[in-house]
Design brief:
homodimer; mainly alpha; two-stranded parallel sheet; 16 helices; 2 strands; about 75% helix; elongated; transmembrane (chains A, B); ion channel (chains A, B)
């Protein structure tokens, strides 16, 4: 019956659009069929997209399992706080303010201990400060008569919100107390519009603060006790890893140029990580200042000095970037000149990267290495040797009987540039050494008793 | 009378501590006096600190008055939302949920329109999604009996909070939907622990969503209508300004080296701004995507291409940094050689910076400049001329009758390096040109009809 009707419809439709030439209708190409195909395509696309997303998430999880642990920690913290309030029904005990505990847990729990501490303390201080100010303003408003009350309230919200918002632009506030200022505005406005009497406000403030304290405390506890991720340790590791990357890419760069490379090219791009890690370093250093002593790091560990070490490494990386550019440029140098200088350049490159590696070992073991100064001396000698070699180049290039004085200077320039940049890199490595040594003395690294072999 | 008593006290005290050797008591050095002095010092220090803080804030305000306007905007938005609810007493109409409107206004109002829009939409979507999910889960929990209910609730909070936290690590989510994920967790947990019946939940959800909508809408309105700060426009200006800085510091660098500088040295450090503006560019490009059409920018303006232009500028800045390092290094070149190359190097430097300035004009006027290609050609010619000049250097350095073939190559190398780096800078400027031209074609810049003179 349905089939018959469909056939009729189709015929009718065919008759309506017929323009003389008759066409066979392929069942699949009917509007329903096409829609079905479209839906199938859409579903397939969606499935593919979701699958790709899951793949990405899985890779992320495998790459850094601590991220998964962090998620489970957040889940646990929230569940604990939730159940804590769920078992004692709302509207009793801590009352409706229980939600502030959950809210605190959600907003405050961050990936690193430092970030969690910073946010918790900011939230606590912001709430306290705003709360006491708001109670005071509220009292003044309630004394000023029914007509003036909304104006006093409105003016106080306007003034304090504007001032607090402005304070968020001040650099020190922005880096350390931004969240506190936000919470200050929030709390002050909420209390101002609440319209409670002062006595009730005080009771509410007490309840709200205690729930916030419980939520924040739970987060801090879980964040410190279960697989803690310390911002300070992460910063230390980042700087150490970046040193290794810098050394590796310097080696790779020089090896690539002098054609005795066994290192794949993509490995020598590690300096790009150094170029791009400024923001990460600053964030971590900022959070690390809030952290208590952990592992080898004391409470007042000189985290700011890590930024200086990072900056000196970046200066070196800029130069390696330029070096890389020169290496990839079109001007090729005759093999003979290259061969002549390759020994010295390779030596300077390798001793330079050894210096960086030694610094990485100093950082990793947190012990002053006695080898650094020797390697530094060796590096300076290599620089001098390369200088001498460059000076003696013309003698070697022109056979003694030659009278014509035209030296193929143009052909020497590319390699001379590479050599100059290597020398400049060495000069900047001295900057890394002095920044790292300052760090070692500020953080009171002990001298290494036994020599740890570099790997 | 009081004076007499004070004198007595002082004598009594003197007798008590006397140890044989008599001392004159200087009135100011008594404990009270010292404490008073200490307090005075403390107050003076505090006043000085507060004064310095105000000075800093004042400088900040003078430097960018739009920041002050932003603060007044936030204050206005909050006051309006507050008074809106204050005039119709709480517990009526929208009920206690009024606070969500204030909360939204505080949290959502950001400096740029794009950021405000991004946060508002994230908040709306996060709340809606979490709300509908939570109502569903809540219903299931309520159907599963009184004993199982807390477990179903707890498990759902744990699972969804963990999953949402994990999603915040996925790069695309982190850059665009981070706040949405946070709001999702928050809303879901709050509803889960609320313990309401589903019907009451729906009513509450309706109220809460409408207050959030009013708060968010007010923020968006004020942010767009009153002196709007568009992230897109800011990004455009940042890139344009950075181009000018790059050109200026390239000129400054070359001029400083060839000793005919009139430009103060600190002015030539502008490339450092380019080196450090990656994070700012990325943030702004991310917010710009949320903005509607404004000024000369359409809705789908190619903001991502700005990042590519920025990256190409950074590559150029790395090279200028290395150039700056070589200029400041100790190896000085004999004046004669310097004089010989200075003309060509200065010409290349000036034509290179002209290319960058022309690109800045293209960006500023949003019109394709016909001069760019000519300048580019000129730059390539200058590069070739410098190459030739370097090649002819030995002929000039050695007088024709000389037989001895030792060229002072070591002395040539520093200037050869500078020249090579200038050539490399020119090569990287070509990268900026092609990135900017791609931007011009993607954003459909019109060809310039009249020539605008560079200033």
């Amino acid at each position: 019956m349905a089939h018959q009707k469909e056939a009729t419809n189709r015929v009718e439709w065919k008759i309506r659009v017929a323009d003389g030439s008759s066409k066979d209708l392929v069942p699949e190409s009917g509007p329903a069929g096409r829609a079905w195909l479209g839906i199938q395509g859409l579903i397939a696309g969606l499935v593919l997209k979701v699958g790709r997303c899951f793949k990405k998430a899985w890779d992320l999880a495998v790459d850094d399992p601590r991220k998964v642990i962090h998620c489970l920690k957040v889940g646990t913290a929230l569940t604990v706080v939730s159940l804590f309030y769920y078992t004692r029904p709302l509207y009793e005990g801590l009352g409706r303010n229980a939600m502030w505990g959950v809210m605190t847990a959600v907003v405050v729990f961050e990936n690193t201990v430092g970030a969690t501490l910073s946010k918790s303390l900011n939230r606590a201080c912001g709430t306290l400060l705003a709360g006491s100010l708001a109670v005071g303003v509220h009292w003044i408003a309630s004394q000023s008569g029914e007509k003036l009350e909304p104006f006093v309230n409105g003016a106080s919200v306007f003034l304090l919100a504007s001032a607090a918002t402005f304070s968020r632009f001040i650099p020190t506030v922005r880096t350390r107390f931004d969240y506190g200022a936000l919470v200050f505005i929030l709390t002050f406005s909420l209390i101002s519009i609440s319209g409670y009497r002062v006595e009730k406000l005080l009771k509410m403030a007490h309840q709200r603060l205690s729930t916030i304290a419980i939520g924040g405390f739970m987060c801090i506890l879980i964040s410190i006790l279960v697989c803690p991720i310390w911002a300070g340790k992460e910063l230390h590791l980042l700087i150490t890893r970046n040193m290794d990357k810098l050394a590796y890419s310097l080696d790779g760069c020089v090896a690539e140029y002098f054609n005795n490379s066994g290192i794949p090219v993509e490995k020598s791009q590690g300096y790009k990580c150094v170029l791009n890690s400024k923001a990460a370093e600053e964030t971590m250093a900022n959070f690390a200042r809030w952290e208590p002593a952990h592992g080898h790091f004391k409470f007042k560990h000189p985290w700011r000095q890590y930024l200086k070490v990072g900056a000196s490494m970046r200066r070196c990386a800029y130069c390696i970037e330029a070096l890389n550019g020169c290496i990839n440029s079109e001007n090729q140098v005759p093999e003979s000149i290259k061969q002549h200088l390759s020994g010295n350049c390779l030596r300077l490159g390798s001793v330079s990267s050894s210096v960086i590696r030694e610094l990485a070992i100093t950082m990793r073991t947190m012990k002053k290495s006695p080898r650094t100064q020797n390697l530094l001396k060796e590096m300076k000698n290599s620089v001098q040797e390369l200088h001498n070699e460059l000076g003696s180049l013309p003698n070697l290039l022109l056979p003694p009987p030659s009278i014509e004085a035209t030296l193929p200077l143009e052909e020497v320039i590319p390699i001379a540039t590479v050599a100059s940049l290597l020398i400049e890199v060495a000069a900047r490595i001295e900057g890394i050494v002095s920044a790292t040594e300052e760090l070692a003395s500020l953080a009171k690294f002990k001298p290494a008793v036994e020599r740890i072999a570099p790997h």
